[in-house]
Amino acid sequence: MAIDSRVINVAVLNCGYTSPVIEKERGQYHDIFRVLLRDAVHRSSSLTNIPTLHLEGWDVVNQKYPLCLDRVDAIIITGSPNGAYQPLEWIHVLQRYISRVYIERPHIKLYGSCFGHQIICKALFEDHGAIIQKDPAGYELGVHAIDVSEEFASRFATLLPTKSLRLQFLHGDHVILPPGVLPEDACVIGSTPHCANQGIYQPGRLLTYQGHPEFDQFIEMECLKLVSARIGWSAKFTESAIASAATMDDAAIAAEIIVSFLLEPTVAEQ
Predict the structure, then answer these.
(1) If you count DSSP H runs as helices and E runs as strands, how many of each does the chain have, helices first?
(2) Radius of gyration of the chain (CA)
(3) CA–CA distance, 241 with 235 (Å, rounded to integer)
(4) What is the pTM (predicted TM-score) of this model?
(5) Structural domains of the chain ordered from first start
(6) Residues 225-268: pLDDT tens digits?
(7) Most-buried pick from 121, 192, 218, 264 (CB within 10 A)?
């Protein structure tokens, strides 16, 4: 791992907005990621020199993007109330942007949560057979344990000794990756009984989670209430999801994995 005291500049592409209740307590999504990763950096015992993470948010729903990528080290793509497959102009623009960055700026690492995971897979792998669609099994909500793949666990062995990672979930879409879709050096991070593809990892290039390590219990519960009101879930269904969200998760471990990923050598450095 390339470890130094440099500043890591991260552009957070906000693909939605927090509710007024969440914004009052936690801010917008770039603020939430800033706290998540800052705390992970300070917890990490493996860092000999503590890097400084500088995160700046961009409203890509209104097509606001960084003017220059020369000093950007990584891009975070957040969750969204929209589906990656929806025929919306801002989603089409984002998809093209991700593809262009991946091809033309290999030194920039890409991370995505939930919708971010799905739109990265759509942008980079749909032409090779990846499918992004509504999950016929319905929603995966609250806290669930990911059965971590051998490939991913071996790369982050010190952080994943049990090969299990519990995250908050709030998604009704999923990514299907037929065999041979991913690059040879990439892998699926793991699965749950509900969802076979819980994220992807390519050293120095890509990391995605289908779950939401950036969601604490408060954020998850507020989001569940909002989605329930919008979709019309039954009170019993909503209460069950909220009860699951109130259980312990491994967001701290997932965040330390993100930091470790951000500190990996870039393709140019390998």
Answers:
(1) 8, 12
(2) 17
(3) 10
(4) 0.95
(5) 7-262 (3.40.50.880)
(6) 999 999 999 999 999 999 999 999 999 999 999 999 999 988 76
(7) 121
